[in-house]
Design goal:
This protein has 79 residues and is α+β, with helices and mostly antiparallel strands. It has 3 helices and 2 strands.
């Protein structure tokens, strides 16, 4: 799996967990699944919405080092 992304309609009032800003004006976000985070953290990651390119910010805040390094190597703007 490594890192899968899916675009998703964002529920009203949702925020991007990378920048803590709303999706107001653009109700489409990105959701991720990855085996680069611990099994315990996978449900957390899968349940969050992000603006494109903002996952790396959250990965760094959570100290998900393996995920952050993968994103850096493969182009942060893609995730």
């Amino acid at each position: 799996m490594t890192l899968n992304k899916k675009t998703a309609a964002v529920p009203k009032g949702a925020i991007c967990f990378g920048c803590n800003q709303s999706f107001e004006g653009n109700p489409v976000g990105v959701r991720f699944e990855s085996d680069l985070v611990s099994v315990e953290d996978r449900p957390e990651l899968a349940g969050l919405y992000f603006h494109p390119g903002h996952l790396i910010r959250y990965a760094r805040r959570r100290d998900w080092t393996e995920l952050a390094e993968y994103i850096e190597q493969n182009g942060a703007a893609q995730y």
